[in-house]
Amino acid sequence: MKKIRTLLLIGFKRNWVAWLETTVVALFSIWVWNKNGAVNVETVLGSETSFFWPLFGPMLISIRYGFASGVICGLMVIAGVASSLQLNENLQNFSFSLSVGMILTLMIVGEFRDHWHEINQKFNLDHDYMRQKLESFTKNYHLLKVSHDQLEHRIAGERVSLRASVNRLQEIALKNTENRFENMRSAFLNIIAEIVGLEVAGIYRIKNGQIDKSDHAVISEHHVLDLKDPMLKNMMETKKLLTAAKIGKDEIHRSRYQVCIPLLDTADNLQAIAVAEKAKFFMLTPSNVALLSLVSNFAADLLNEHLQVPVLNAQQKHLFEQYMTRAEDNRRQFGADTSLVVFVGFPPKYRKALQEVISFRRGADVYWHCFTKEKEPVLVVLLPLTTVWGAQQYVNRIKELLIQSLGDVSMTISALEREVEILGPLMLGKDKKFISSFVQELGN
Fold it and tell me: Do you find a cis peptide bond into 348, omega within 30 degrees of 0?
């Protein structure tokens, strides 16, 4: 029904088709007029038909195409009927009043149609304008959303330097041999705030396995320590870093905290804890959480007076294995792999260079100076959160350092590699079996 109404009310868009339709309708109306014999008012009034059917065609044209087309169609009908009567010598029966009535009717209908068409066009223009505005708004919204997402990823991807974070903590620890926690707690909070965007948080000392409320530092006065919090209890039991980002879709986060951080040293002693009510959620990426775990572990080692590492001697093999175990835990929990490089067999001329290599140690790296079964000196370097590419760059710098220490301009890297065997870079995850068996053979 809607299609029929549309076809009746809306004309063709092509002009030649519209004029062809007008001509055909005019010819048909002339035929109807002549057929009915309605050429005089008296004839019309005396007939059984009470409606002037020839009016229907021009009126339809007037509705479809407007005032001008309707009037032209009506004039064509009147001219056609008058011409046919003239040919039949019956022009005296032509009804002038019917002709005038038809033209007036067509003018009224056509004027109404034109007015309706103008209103319709105005609404269509308004609709098109609003649609364009909506499309523009939608595009701008999506552009803004994409820009916002890119900014979030960029901020989340700008990881705080591990070396810089560790060095800051180490400097504070070296300056303050006593009351280290009191001097380090605020700095540690600031560092982890940079890593994961903490806004409301607190750090507390652990004494005898219990949280010491009096020995603490906070970010924001809105921080509250809730000892009954389920996430805090879980963290104290498991001694693992917990974040709200690990909550599943079907799980309900019932904790007031978004991040719970244990400061667990290499000897598996809980030195302190940090809890945060508010953090920038998009910064809780796996890489940032792994960095947070590593910095927390390093800070815990600094708080332990008996763990002044990370340059280990041959007798501290068990401690190096503990570092490897912790690195493996970080890999399993956060997907952050650790690289390992081994330097085997330093000839006497490289002994001084060996000390320079050790002094080149980066903040979180762990160095173990030991020997093979054949009593060859070995330096094992553990590089936390370091990719194969980063570890290879480290090896290249060490090679350059060894060559420079000799002062021999003729010394080449290939000659150095013949005298000092370099194993690696090895990845703790991929090369775990080889690393474990190799470390077992090392010692005093």
Answer: no
Residue-wise pLDDT tens digits, 175-206: 766 777 777 888 888 887 877 777 888 888 88
Residue 443: DSSP 8-state: B
The last residue of a domain, from among 105, 129, 153? 129
For 91-101, what is each residue's pLDDT tens digit?
Answer: 676 777 778 88
Q: What is the rounded distance in angstroms from the CA atom of residue 293 to the CA atom of residue 297?
A: 6
Helix (H), strand (E), coil (C) string for 99-147: HHHHHHHHHHHHHHHHHHHHHHHHHHHHHHHHHHHHHHHHHHHHHHHHH
Domain that holds residue 36: 2-129
Residues 6+ apart with CB under 8 A from 160: 191, 194, 195, 291
Cβ(172)–Cβ(186) under 8 Å? no
**115-129, pLDDT tens digit by residue?**
888 888 888 888 988
Distances (CA, A) of 425 to 322, 335, 391, 394, 422: 20, 18, 6, 9, 9
List b or e across 284-309, with b for residues whose CB sees 16 or more CB atoms inside 10 angstroms. Answer: bbeebbbbbbbbbbbbbbbbbeebeb
Angle made by CA atoms 190, 167, 188, in degrees to the nearest 5: 20
Q: What does the CA dihedral 42, 48, 51, 52 come to, rounded to 10 degrees?
A: -50
Number of domains into which the chain is organized:
3
Give CA–CA dist 420/319, Å, rounded: 26
CA atoms of 173 and 344, how far apart (whole Å): 32
Task: Say if 328 falls within a structural domain.
Answer: yes
Q: Which helix (H) or strand (E) holds 407?
A: none
Residue 159 to residues 156, 288, 308, 382: CA-CA distances in angstroms?
7, 7, 27, 20
CA distance linking residue 381 with residue 338, whole number of Å: 11
Give the predicted TM-score (pTM) of the model: 0.52
Q: Give the closest residue to 368 by CA, choosing from 299, 302, 305, 318.
A: 318
Q: Is 379 helix (H, G, I), strand (E, B) or coil?
A: strand
> How far, in Å, CA of 216 to CA of 396, rounded?
43
